[in-house]
Amino acid sequence: MVFTSRKSESAVKKALEAALESYAGKPVGVMVRSLAEMQAVLSDNPFPKAPANRTVAVFLDQPPPADTFKAVKGRKDEQIGLGRREIYIHYGDGMGQSKLVIPAAKAGTARNMNTVAALAKMASEL
User: Fold this and answer.
1) What is the count of structural domains for the chain?
2) One Pfam family, short name please (predicted)?
3) Residue 49 belongs to what domain range?
4) Which of 31, 33, 102, 117 could form an SS bridge with 37, CB 3.0 to 4.6 Å?
């Protein structure tokens, strides 16, 4: 979802989560990012030469914990990088066969870099 608001990130998040819970009948988490933050996710991508459809940013509410790398399980050829409030993953062989488990990413939502770029472009045109 792309929109403009004069409210704070926390106010927008709270309002969206309340509306979604009312609609769905259960809690629904929301991640909110500004245009500048979405552009930073793109520019901070530690795997810029990797195919955008095989590289994801997992959006989190908070910065990734310091022990993120230690807790990773099932890693094969995936590359992992940490961002401000993101975990970047490049799936060398694609996501389909990956057994990668990153506990810190459990509460996040992943978007591939093509989608991140499209969302940033849409936001820049508002």
Assistant:
1) 1
2) DUF1697
3) 33-124
4) 33
Q: What digits encode the pLDDT tens for the residues 29-86?
A: 999 999 999 999 999 999 999 999 999 999 999 999 999 999 999 999 999 999 999 9
Tokens of 41: 């996710």
Cα–Cα distance between 44 and 76 in angstroms, integer? 23
In a domain, 8, yes or no: no
Single pTM value for the model: 0.93
- Token readout for 71 is 């807790």
Q: Is the dihedral of CA 20, 113, 76, 70 positive or negative?
A: negative
